[in-house]
TrEMBL record, chain A:
<feature type="transmembrane region" description="Helical">
    <location>
        <begin position="58"/>
        <end position="79"/>
    </location>
</feature>
<keyword id="KW-0472">Membrane</keyword>
<feature type="transmembrane region" description="Helical">
    <location>
        <begin position="34"/>
        <end position="51"/>
    </location>
</feature>
<dbReference type="Pfam" id="PF02361">
    <property type="entry name" value="CbiQ"/>
</dbReference>
<dbReference type="InterPro" id="IPR003339">
    <property type="entry name" value="ABC/ECF_trnsptr_transmembrane"/>
</dbReference>
<keyword id="KW-1003">Cell membrane</keyword>
<keyword id="KW-0812">Transmembrane</keyword>
<protein>
    <submittedName>
        <fullName>Energy-coupling factor transporter transmembrane protein EcfT</fullName>
    </submittedName>
</protein>
<feature type="transmembrane region" description="Helical">
    <location>
        <begin position="7"/>
        <end position="28"/>
    </location>
</feature>
Automatic annotation (TrEMBL), chain B:
<dbReference type="InterPro" id="IPR003439">
    <property type="entry name" value="ABC_transporter-like_ATP-bd"/>
</dbReference>
<dbReference type="GO" id="GO:0042626">
    <property type="term" value="F:ATPase-coupled transmembrane transporter activity"/>
</dbReference>
<dbReference type="GO" id="GO:0016887">
    <property type="term" value="F:ATP hydrolysis activity"/>
</dbReference>
<dbReference type="Pfam" id="PF00005">
    <property type="entry name" value="ABC_tran"/>
</dbReference>
<keyword id="KW-0813">Transport</keyword>
<comment type="similarity">
    <text>Belongs to the ABC transporter superfamily.</text>
</comment>
<keyword id="KW-0067">ATP-binding</keyword>
<dbReference type="InterPro" id="IPR015856">
    <property type="entry name" value="ABC_transpr_CbiO/EcfA_su"/>
</dbReference>
<dbReference type="InterPro" id="IPR050095">
    <property type="entry name" value="ECF_ABC_transporter_ATP-bd"/>
</dbReference>
Amino acid sequence: MEKKNAVLSLYPTTKLLMILLFAISVFIIPNYLFGYAIFFVCLLIAAIGSVTKEFANLTIKGLFSLSVLIFVLQSFFYPGTHVLWEWSFLAITQEGVDFALGLTSKIIAVGSSLILFFRITPVKDFVYSLEVLGLSPKATYVVLSTLTIIPEMKKSSQIIMDAQKTRGVETEGSLMVRLKALLPMITPLVLSSVASTEERAMALEARGFTVNKRKTSIYSIEKTGRDSFIRVMLLVILILLIVWRVAL
Amino acid sequence: MSYIEMKGISYKYPVGDGKVLKDVNLSLEKGKVYALIGANGSGKTTICNLIRGFIPHFFKGDLDGEMLIEGKDIREWEMGDLAQKMGYIFQNPFTQISGTKDTVFEEIAFGLENLRVEVPVIKERVTEIIKLFGLEPLQNKDPQQLSGGQRQRVSLASVMVMDPEILIIDEPTSQLDPQATEEVFKIINIMKQKGKTIILVEHKIELIAEYADWVILVEDGKVVMEGKTKDILSDIKTVNHGVMLPQYALLGYEMRKTGRLNEIPITESEAITVFNNWIVGKEE
Ligand SMILES: Nc1ncnc2c1ncn2[C@@H]1O[C@H](COP(=O)(O)OP(=O)(O)OP(=O)(O)O)[C@@H](O)[C@H]1O
Ligand SMILES: [Mg+2]
């Protein structure tokens, strides 16, 4: 991880505060254009953090398709009287479009802020900062290990799949074929996961995981002057937004 | 008072039928290397779980008899104290990586962090252990991406760095090539020299002949033979209980058929002396 990068090197909670400000701001300034603008702000920050590709990938594939769906549904079904377009029982109303714009702009602003946060913050750093704030290591362990166990489960499901393929079970083709192949896989996957969870718990115990509530850590990240500066800036922006809202 | 003692232990796991341990009596002294041998499913791992207190603290089930560590019943020991006293290396190397660390160095440091050791001391001790184990080329790798053998060596290092008094090691070499196996046993020997008490499960009988002080032979949940390594591994009765004798001992028995052989050797160096004497004796 590039530590000198202006965005990436910020302390995790600074990044979190920034993202929180983005998310809250769309509720302070209700204009939908403002909400959509937040996406571009996030994009800019992603670019500075040189994670543009990952960020764009997730927002476009996930967030935008979801927003388009919500937009269409809301503009058709939101009750209203100013009909813009009509076909048999379907009608788009002005109220529906307004509501859909407002809603999707908020979803996009909050969604892209969250995606940005996890693109620019390694989970390990985030968890470390939470532990510093006093979150119990047991809770943070659950978060961290789940994130690392998912790829392991993927790997073992691939192994089981391959084993079944060699035994002649069809695993490719239509949806029905795939579903059929999935069923016999679930049992060994779940069973082996449960068994290894038990062993993992013992292995953790063996290494003193439950001995102390607080632990030392050889990994550490520090806040810098830039963090304080950004935090002050965020506060100023928040105040300006509120002033703007009141003046509007 | 024995250091580690089992008196009339019987145990049945919560699931599964029948007793897995049947009236086991053992008494272990401080500073010795004990080898637990026996066929698959005979109960070796179960005995390890019991000594470490995973039975009954982790596995419930029916436990009868007394399991004492320094004269105190295992049920009365705090799990935290047991964790500091005994290091446990599990049979399966794939489940003992903590799963939260990015590098082998941090992985090895995990136990010491849990024990609240100061950061500079941790770094020093981890660096030392990495050197002892020759893990330098791996220290910046992701522990999740190691091979079975590499994981096994990292797990061993992760436990030894915590410097426990007692080491319970369940088949440390199942995934290792001959050279790495040899190296692991050299480390076990270093631990012995440091005065650690070591309980070792191992199928490679030649290594046991070389390194263990005392052998405990388990069959079907019972201790069927125990004694000095030399006595057990040169006793032909041992093969009736599902374990092989060392090659040198088998050869010794073959040679005995053709003539006088005072002693059955179990290690390479013993074999050289015994067979040399035998040749000299023939020529006379
Ligand atoms: N968690 C468990 N629950 C129920 N039964 C178990 C459990 N673990 C082991 N057993 C049973 O207890 C018996 C002894 O098992 P144990 O694992 O102690 O054998 P082992 O001597 O270590 O064998 P191996 O050489 O294969 O490691 C076996 O019959 C096994 O099926
Ligand atoms: Mg075993």
